[in-house]
Here is the input.
Amino acid sequence: MKTKGALLRELNSPWAIEEIEIGDPKAHEVKIKMEAAGMCHSDHHLMTGGIPMAGFPILGGHEGAGVVAEVGEGVTDFAVGDHVVLSFIPSCGKCKSCRAGLANLCDFGAMLLQGEAVSDHTFRIHTASGENVYPMTLLGTFSPYMVVHEASVVKIDKEIPFEVAALCGCGIPTGYGSSTRSGDVRPGEDVAIVGVGGVGTAALQGAVIAGARNVFAIDPVEWKREQALKFGATQAFASVEEAMNEIGAATEWGMCQKVIVTVGEVHGSDVDTWMSITAKAGTCVLTGMGNMMENQVTLNLSMLTLLQKNLQGSIFGGANPKLDIPLLLSMYKAGKLNIADMITRQYRLDQINEGYTDMLEGRNIRGVIRYTEEDW
Here is the structure.
C-alpha cells in the first residue's frame, strides 16, 4: 500500500515527508495503523551518523503505538482491532538470549540497522521511485502505517491512551529499567540521574518507586531541572561539578550507590566525571548512546579497581518487552507511574523537524507525533 513517512536521505539533513510503499504482511507479520509515535533522541543520532544505518534513505521512528489492521499467516497472538505497542527491540522468545531471560538482547537485534525484514530478509519498504528504504530498528514509526514482525509487537490494554502507550516502546522501559533492573536501585540508596529528558525522567521515577533515599537530578537545562523536582527528585543541579559538594554533604561523602546516565549523547571524556560521584562498590549505569565510531574513554582504572566500582551498560533498561511493557502501563493506569505529564507537546508528522528542534533546545521532556484522519 502507498502511504507516507519521514525520511532521511543524507547525514545532517532535515526529515522530509515522502510517499512510500509498504508491503502486505507475510507469515508472522502484522500491519499496524499507527496512532502515535514518540520522538526519541536516538532518531536524531540517525541524522548525525551516531547510529549508522546500512544505507539511505532511512525511515525514522522506533517508538510508537497503534491498532492492528491486518495479520499474516501463522499469527495467533494478535487480531485485527488489538491495541499494540511497537517494541524497538524484537523478542522472539526462542533464541539463546531470550531463553536466558535476556529478551532485550534477542538475536533478532543483530538485524536492527540492516533494513531487511526479519521474516524473509528482503526490503519491504520502497520510495515512490522504487529505492529500498531502511526502517529504524525494523520499525519506522514515523509513518502512519507499518508492517512488522510479530516479535516487535506487544498487545496492550485498550483503555491506555495511545500517546502514553507509544512511550513504552522505548523511553519508559529504558529509563525505568535502568534504575530498577540494570541499576538494581534498593530502598535507602542514594541515586543520581544524569540527564532528565524522557529516558531520564523515567529513570528518576524508577528510582523513587524503588525507594531511593535521595535522587539527585543533573541537567544543564533549568526547565528540565524544575520538572525533575516535580517528578520526585530531591535536588537538581546544572552539572556534576555543581552537584559534587551537595551530593557529598547529603551522603556523608559516600556519594551515590547508583548513577544512571541518560544524557542525549554520551562522550567518552565524561565517563570518569560520572564515576566520580559513584560510591565505593557502586554502579554507574550507562544508558545514553554515544557515537558508534567513538571508542576513546577517560577512566581512572586504578580508582575503578581500588574502590571496586562497576560501569554497567544498559539497553532497553534490561527489559523483557512482552512482559514489562504491559506491566509499566498497568502501573500508569493505577496511578503509580506518571507518563502523561512526560508528554510535553504533540505534533503532526509534517512538524517533525520542529519537534526535534524543540527537543535539542531543551523544551521537551518527550514530544509525540499524533496521527489523524488526514494521515490514514
